[in-house]
Amino acid sequence: MCAAPTGGAAQATARKACEIPACARSRAYARLVLRITDARTGELVDAAPARRGLTRVEAHPQGLDPTGLRVLLAADLLLRALELGGTPVWALLAAEGRHAELRAAADALGIRPFEDGDGAAGLGEAQVLHVVEEGRTEPDGVRVAVAPVTWSAPGAPEEADQAALRLALLTHPRNAPAVIDADALDRAADTLRRWRGAVADWARRPSRPVPDEVRAELRAAWEDDLDTAAVLGALRAVEADPGLPDGARFETYAYADRLLGLDLARDLGHPA
Predict the structure, then answer these.
(1) Distance (Å, whole) CA 113 – CA 100
(2) Where are the beta strands (DSSP E) in 55-94?
(3) Whole-angstrom distance, CA of residue 82 vs CA of residue 151
(4) pTM of the complete model
(5) What is the DSSP letter of 224?
(6) For a Cys-Cys bond, which of 111, 129, 130, 215 suits 28, CB 3.0-4.6 Å?
(7) What gap in Å lies between CA 120 and CA 133, rounded to an integer?
(8) In the chain, count of helices (H) and strands (E)?
(9) What is the distance between the alpha carbons of residues 157 and 12, in angstroms, rounded to a whole number?
(10) What is d(CA 113, CA 65) in angstroms, rounded to the nearest whole number?
(11) What are phi and psi of 111, to 5 degrees?
(12) Residue 42 φ/ψ, nearest 5 degrees
């Protein structure tokens, strides 16, 4: 911490001391604010306008189909990002029927459990975010729109590798239509195998902290309208950077996976 100067010479010394990196507040640890597009206006709004205020996130899937799953996934990502920023959250499922099937599908996709919701006011929340399918004009309040998914892969979505499906969906911006076909699932599965194997290998090296500039890039990506495509791009850059120690790669992937939920550390401890 920089000492308060008391005189001319002391002030100059203190100014010089405060210019060194140890005294400068790193961008990586500055408090960022998650901004999300409100579909009513098309403008970015603070997802959590009151610091430490409870934020209620309601998922409104209209059916048990790929687009409905994408709504649940977007709500899950929103909850994870808010929690990473220190915001308390309350997750609610607002759907007309088929709750048991929706919960089972969400669980398979690595989505946290949701409580049943009826749209009523709850625990004095400071913000309510409604995650809805694109084109919905209800309910009132901030609406986070999710574009449709076209399923072109063999079989039903529930028959696919669910981790690969999650990654395939994360590669597309939430507000852009997505086509999930066999090639997309194969690419995602290959990436998961490579990353999980790499994370298990990197874990055998001495640990190193996430580089400040990488942490800042990751946070800036997901705080900017949940840009998971940019988060994945940052991870690819970390994977390819020859100057990073493996211990830092490991910590970076473990940190980003708190948002992505891809179970990237699944193979830790397995034989090489």
Answers:
(1) 11
(2) 55-60, 89-93
(3) 29
(4) 0.86
(5) B
(6) 215
(7) 20
(8) 8, 9
(9) 65
(10) 18
(11) -95, 140
(12) 75, 10
